[in-house]
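pasting QacE family quaternary ammonium compound efflux SMR transporter for the record, 110 residues
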Amino acid sequence: MKAWLFLLSAIGLEVIGTTALKASDSFSRLWPSVLTVLCYGAAFYCLSITLRTMPTGVAYALWSGIGIVLITAVSWLLFGQELDAPALIGMALIVAGVVVMNLFSTTTAH
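structre below
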C-alpha cells in the first residue's frame, strides 16, 4: 500500500512539474521554472521509494501510462490542447493496458 501511495504521489508531482514546465516558457519565467525542478525532484524521490517494493517495469508502466492520460487532460483543460479521435483512442488503450496489468498480471502482486 505504501508503494502505491508513493507512486501516485510521484505521478501527481510529475504532472504538476510538466504543467509548470509548459508555463515556464522554456525556463524563461522564474517561478514556474522553480516549481518544475522541485516537482520533478520530488517525483523521482517518490518513485525511488516505490521501486523498493514494486517491480521497476510495473511501476514505470503505471507512472508513464497514468501520467500520459493525466497530463493530456490537464493540457486540454488549461492550455486548450485539442484531442482528436486517434488521441482519445490511444489514451483509452493506455488506460486499458494499465487496468489489464493491475487486474490480471501476477507481476503487480510482488
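Residues 2-109 form one domain.
The mean pLDDT is 93.
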